[in-house]
Amino acid sequence: MIPIAICDDELLHARQTQAAIRRCEAQAVTRCFETPLALLAAVTQQGYAPRVAVLDIRMAGMDGIELAKRLNALVPGCAVIFLTAYLSYAPDVYETRHVYFVLKNELDRRIGSALRAALAETAAPASLQLATAHGYRNVPVTDVLFLERILRKTRVVLTDGEELVTAAPAALLEAVPDGVFLRCHQSYWANFSHITAMEKDEFVLTGGLRVPISRSYRSAARSAFFANLRGEEG
């Protein structure tokens, strides 16, 4: 699933954008925000981390360019697409990092190309955002060894310790491309980049840690492991 934020203070336009995105990207999970402050609150207070943000430029209060600057700082892995009815705003978008500029009257024709560019730029998400007991923590994907689901909690084992969060593994990994983590057990997801060896019932990870491979996942885990190994050798 690909989390995509849409921010437009005209709800009708936001819904039109949402429909256009869904028509060209089946994996999109969109959320509409009517104000920049609502989107920023979702990021800072709820741990929302969109992979793509489609932002109207002309909005009351904070405009889309200022919103993009704040998103660049808060969610560095989020790609920004600017959307506007006014071509005169084109020079202003270069004040902040973005991947595309789309005129609203060209939405259906341009949004597919814009999304492809945005998703290509974010092919390897920079981090997982963890809602811990001490606040939100952004953790680089490369620092995550494995995830373990324990009752209603998820144990996130890192290269420098671990965190216990309430979010399910599926929610933590929804913006991570397929193939980065391998589910090898009903309760375990291992980071492919940290798997050093496969034994009959376990993966051996960086630092000698081990995660179990259950019987029901063994065949798929074995196939994925050796396919990945062949890819690295090639």
Can you give a write-up of this model?
Strand 13 and strand 14 form a beta hairpin. Strands 2-1-3-4-5 form a five-stranded parallel β-sheet, with helices on both faces. It has a five-stranded antiparallel β-sheet with strand order 10-9-8-12-11. Strands 13-14-15 form a three-stranded antiparallel β-sheet, with no helix packed on it. It has six helices and 15 strands. It has 234 residues and is α/β, with parallel strands linked by helices. Keywords: DNA-binding, Phosphoprotein. Residues 3-119 form the Response regulatory domain. GO terms for molecular function: DNA binding.
Descriptors for this entry?
5-stranded parallel beta sheet, single chain, alpha/beta, 5-stranded antiparallel beta sheet, 234 residues
Summarize the SSE layout with pairings:
Blueprint: E1 2-7, H1 11-24, E2 28-33, H2 36-46, E3 52-56, H3 64-74, E4 79-84, E5 100-103, H4 107-121, E6 127-132, E7 135-140, E8 144-150, E9 153-158, E10 161-165, H5 169-172, E11 181-185, E12 188-191, E13 195-198, E14 202-205, E15 210-212, H6 215-233
Parallel strand pairs: 1-2, 1-3, 3-4, 4-5
Antiparallel strand pairs: 6-7, 8-9, 8-12, 9-10, 11-12, 13-14, 14-15
Helix pairs in contact: 1-4, 2-3
